[in-house]
Design goal:
Largest sheet: none
Structural class: mainly alpha
Shape: elongated
Radius of gyration: 34 Å
Number of strands: 0
Order of helices and strands: HHHHHHHHH
Strand content: under 5%
Amino acid sequence: MAADRDLELDALYRETPGDFIEARNAAAKRVRPEDRDLADELKALRKPSQAAWVLNQLALDEDDTLSEVLRTGLALKTSVQEGRGPSEQEAVRRARTGAISASAAAGLERLRMANVAPATATKHRLRKSLEALAAYGEALPPSPPGRMDADLEPPGFEFLAGIELASPIRKPTARPKAAKPRPKSVKAPTPTARSHSQSPPKLARRDLGAARNTAEQTEAAVAAAQGECKAVSDELRGLRARLEQASPRVATARRDLDSASRVRDRTRSELARLEKKAGSRDL
C-alpha cells in the first residue's frame, strides 16, 4: 500500500525540532520501498526553526487564534484597498494586533506542553512571523503554516497594498482650446457629477492607508529585529558572565591537575626504585 503524502508530512511536522532529523530519516527509509519520490522529498526536508514549529502546530491543530490572525489581516488589507476612514482602519489594526498576541501566547503554550525550552529570540521571531502571516491574509505564503521550516518574512509592498498608487494629478501643460458654445437646452456638467470612485480625496485616503499599512509592517519588522538583537546581546552577556565565574574554577582545576601529576610522577619513580631493589635482592 502506497504511503499517504499528507499523513506522512503531518506526522513529521508534529515532531519537535530536536527530534525532527531522526524522524525524517526514519520516515524516508520506511517509505522508500513503496514510494521513492516521497522518500526523496522527505529526506530533503529541513528542520523547522522553533517559530516555524509553533506555527505548524497551530495550523495542524486548526487553532482558532491562527484563523483570527488571517481574518483580521485580510480585513485590514480590504479596508486599505477600499479607502475606508482612518478610525475604521485603526480599529481593524487593533483587532489584528490582539489576534497576533493571542496566537503568540497559544504558540508558546505549545512549546511548554512539548517540554521544549524556547530559545532567547523565539518570542520575537514568532511574533514577526505572525505579523507577516497577517499581511498575507487569505493568500497564504508558498510554505504555509503546517509545512514551514523557517521564520516567515512579510510580503512586499505591492502585495500589502494590493493596488497601484494613484498618479498625482498634473495640471495641463498646454492651454486648453476654447469650448464651443453649447445649445441653451443643454446644461454643462457640474463638478458634483464627477464619479465618487475616482474622487481625489478617496484616492488619497486609499494611498494613505496603503502607506500606513506598509509603514506598520516595516516598524514591526524593525521592532522584531531590535528585540532579537537585544535578546542575543543578553545571551552573550550571560555567557560571558558564566565564563568569568568558571575561570577561577578552571585555574584551580589546573593547579590540582599539576599537583596530582607531580604526585603521580614521584609515586612512579618510587615504585620503580622499589621494584629494582626487590629484583636485586632476589638475585
